[in-house]
Fold each of these.
Amino acid sequence: MKVTISGTASEAPYEQLRAQIADQARSGSLPAGYRLPTVRRLAEELGLAPNTVAKAYRALEGDGVIETRGRNGTFVAAAEGSAREAAHAAEEYARRARRLGLDREAALAAAEEALRAVYVGER
């Protein structure tokens, strides 16, 4: 995620942050399911007050751009219900594969094999 806050812009810092995250989510450069930094960490990285980042996150959540999953963190939300459900299932799969000790490549290979098996003949 790349965000820059201009001290000379006419927009407030929280609005600059909100707009940049929303634009990146809409363009796909921040894909559905992408975990955003914590409020505190992003505030430190950008040199902003935590309340400024929290305000931007609240606005983004109100717009349906991001979703907070309690202690699990804040994530870019899927645009549609089915895409949101698929992103959640993929995240659950990734967490389980990691708990099972699979590395990224092995987890990806297993997922690709499962997709091939399910989608056989659907062309």
Amino acid sequence: MSDAERYERGMVVRREVLSDAHVDRANESITEFTGDFQDFITRTAWGDIWSRPELDRRSRSVAVLTAMIALGHHDEFEMHVRAARRNGLTVAEIKEVILQAGLYCGVPAANTAFKLAERVLRDLGDVR
């Protein structure tokens, strides 16, 4: 598969997982400095990894949420809570992911994740 084909496949998956609005905002902010990185993540993260058939998107979302909690990547965590909902995870399943991560990643990390996830889920209208 060519780089152009991987990019196109990646853009389709990226839009399905993150939403057209999110990807459009990201693309509008591309500069000469950041363009190569945006091309790289579209081809590699979305066109290669997220496109592999061995894990479904729900499973990938569980893995990504856990990694973002463990590493303290709060902005990415919030983005991927939205993506997890788009990928079919329920609010209860997201809660269980955070509880599980709390056991292995630490209570402070889970505490922050609960706060961030609740804010996102409230914005989505999924919790009060």
Amino acid sequence: MNDSQSSPSSSSSSYDSAVGPPQANAVGSSSSSQGISPTVSRSWRDVFWLLIFMAHLIVVGFALGVFGLNRFKQPDRLNIDKYTMGFLENKDGLTEDYWSLYAVAGGVGAFLGWTWLLLLGSRANQMMKFSVHLLTTYLAVVSVLCFWVHQYFWGGAFAIGSALQFLYVISVIDRLPFTMLVLQRAVKMVWNLPEVTRVACISMLVMLLWLSLWSFGAAGVVALGIGDGGRWWLLLVLSVSLFWTGAVLCNIVHVVVSGMVFLVLIHGGRESNSMPPKPVMRSLQYAVTTSFGSICYGSLFTAAIRTLRWEIRGLRSKIGSNECLLCCVDFLFHLVEFLVRWFNKYAYVQIAVYGKSFNHSAKDAWELFQSTGVESLIAYDCSGAVLFMSTLLGGLVSGTCAAVWTKIKHPERVLMVGSTAMLMGMILVGLAMVVVESAVTSIYICYAEDPALINRWDAAFFAQISEKLHQRLQHRSARAREVLSHRIDDQVQAAVLA
């Protein structure tokens, strides 16, 4: 029986035997990756969430078609208005009036994403540095434009966003050199794996197909005469659906890239004779079958929790000696850390390699990092935030281009079209960024499980990352001693006063 005819369980067995867990889980271990053996069989995981996601796609897809067709070419094509005449204000508006505006956002987002992938090997680091510093300025400019068109709420929101972005960059400025070092190595890894960039390009095409339907329905909603409040609520529901769908597609790419990077590090190179056949296709097969439910489940929560974690960490480092505020922020910090234990992006590497459920993968990954001390290194690294800034900038550019054209053709719908178009652009650019983010997460997982893998791949990088880990562990120990000493002094003083 040849490979193309083999059953999923048999292909799973050969793949798992190539990427099972290393025997040692401590940084500095000298265990070899050659003694790897499978521990978890490939089976369907988190099937409930797979069914929920598929049902959601069917329901939302049907609703999008109805909203778009109802106002396509002629008002109220499907005779929906007769059911809303009693409580909604029905006006004339056509889907095609706004559909072309969303096409601008889709085109700009796809152009930025594909351009980033094309420049991945030669200009990626310069583009990321540029994004970090440009985002603050761009948010400020958008804020001014919002005030100019009398959108004071959104003008204030973008102004606050610009200020928070500036404060965040200032608070992590000392971490950026190490962050760029990690990103450089991740780019180096991905650039030598052209298969994964092709997967990202294909995923962008798939997303564009879904966006063509989504924007058709969204344009129909904008054309509805139900008042701004009703339109905004409908667009909010559609945007949440789009966010989940985009996150699922991004994390499919994440799983594919993670599986490929892990294999390359385990086997010592892409051209190694021990590499299993068609590794990218097998990773993709698992991502859209047995592991698809886990991807759907994790995609609901990981992005929001990760963003909240970045903001709380930045706020926590800037509080100073305000004990009351510090206590409140510490409570939020520990709450988010608890959530991170169950919802983190490193779970996707475990899903790609071992086929575990999402919560099991997230828990194992976080416990691995905490037991080896690598969690302190991850907390210091800002690569995820830098990539998110690039994604956000791409979304803002896409949204701005759509908003400018909307201002010319339908000035009363600028904010409505511009905000939803920004989400479209963010998803398309994010599909390009996830390639590098996946490589970063895989590098950290491999370093925690068996540092020899990183040493064999890039000895200079291994030395640099090990030195930084040693510094972070020393810093954490010194801080713990300082806190303990402070508490003992407070207790002694309290006892004396008593």
Amino acid sequence: MPKISKEADLQTVITTFEMTPGTCQDLLDALNDAYEQFISKQPGFIAAGLHVNDAQTRIANYSQWQKREDFQAMLRSDEMRERNRKITQLCRSFEPVMYDVMAAFE
């Protein structure tokens, strides 16, 4: 489970996917499969979470990596490039963005 902390020395990536309600479950299935079968087994992976809005038009993915290079290596792998081609067909757009945690509240 992701733990959000300003003191943590890690890379946070938030990816937003836009899709129609008709493809939400298919995209969610593809993302779950990617995490279970591939992403979670990559060097530097720490944790991730998937969130769906109530209209089923957006999925937000929060992931944590030991280093920015670990995330980039996973994205550039042949397997993930093939998976992303399929994911692209299920959504209007998606954009992974790297962030630094500036504050966390409990």
